[in-house]
């Protein structure tokens, strides 16, 4: 089970590209969750399974909440300033999806935690839904919300990048690879 391609993420000076890079990782770890379920079908966790579960937990416990905060606390409010009612409605739907994705994560997390500690247990039925919903959610944001960011003032994008960096204890000139 491979982790990620060797690509380096954009830095905080390009916050939208960094959010897209985060989505690439979201998709990767969501797919890895399904692969892990399939790998373990009827088997006890081996070293690869334990390591994969640990990586998935680390991503969705640490990086994913920061990513959601980037959108909820900074990007969405900045975009609401555009006064685009259709965009506002789409962001409201995405906000609701963030809450649904969180609930799915909390349904899948105990299983991953067991696997990460080497304990065999049955995968919850939500694994496939968790993976597919995260992928669809990321695609919707990339098609609907992120293009609208091109209408934001450069100062708003710079503020987004600074706030993303601050959430992670970094500066805006550090590489974004550790940000997601």
Give a structural overview.
The chain is an all-alpha fold and 180 residues long. It has a single domain, classed as Four Helix Bundle (Hemerythrin (Met), subunit A). Helix 1 runs antiparallel to helix 4, helix 2 runs antiparallel to helix 3 and helix 2 runs antiparallel to helix 5. The radius of gyration is 17 Å and the shape is elongated. The two termini are 20 Å apart. The C terminus is likely disordered.
Question: What's the quick description here?
Answer:
The chain has 5 helices and no strands. With 180 residues, the protein is mainly alpha-helical.
Strand and helix map with partners:
Blueprint: H1 15-39, H2 47-80, H3 85-116, H4 127-148, H5 154-167
List keywords for this structure.
mainly alpha; Four Helix Bundle (Hemerythrin (Met), subunit A); disordered C terminus; Hemerythrin domain-containing protein; Hemerythrin-like
Major sheet description: none
CATH topology: Four Helix Bundle (Hemerythrin (Met), subunit A)
What separation lies between the terminal Cα atoms? 20 Å
The secondary-structure element order is HHHHH
Q: Which oligomeric form is depicted?
A: single chain
Protein name: Hemerythrin domain-containing protein
Pfam families: Hemerythrin
Domain Hemerythrin-like: 15-149
Organism: Chitiniphilus purpureus
């Amino acid at each position: 089970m491979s982790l990620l391609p060797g690509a380096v993420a954009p830095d905080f000076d390009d916050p939208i590209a960094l959010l897209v890079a985060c989505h690439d990782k979201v998709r990767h770890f969501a797919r890895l969750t399904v692969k892990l379920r399939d790998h373990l079908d009827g088997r006890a966790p081996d070293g690869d399974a334990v390591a994969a579960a640990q990586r998935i937990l680390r991503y969705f416990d640490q990086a994913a909440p920061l990513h959601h905060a980037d959108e909820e606390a900074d990007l969405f409010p900045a975009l609401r300033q555009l006064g685009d009612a259709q965009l506002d409605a789409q962001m409201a739907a995405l906000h609701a999806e963030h809450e649904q994705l969180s609930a799915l994560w909390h349904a899948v997390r105990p299983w991953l935690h067991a696997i990460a500690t080497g304990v065999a247990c049955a995968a919850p039925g939500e694994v496939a839904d968790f993976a597919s919903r995260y992928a669809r959610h990321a695609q919707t944001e990339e098609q609907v919300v992120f293009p609208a960011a091109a209408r934001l003032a450069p100062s708003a994008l710079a503020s987004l990048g600074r706030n993303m960096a601050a959430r992670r204890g970094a500066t805006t000139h550090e590489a974004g690879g550790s940000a997601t």
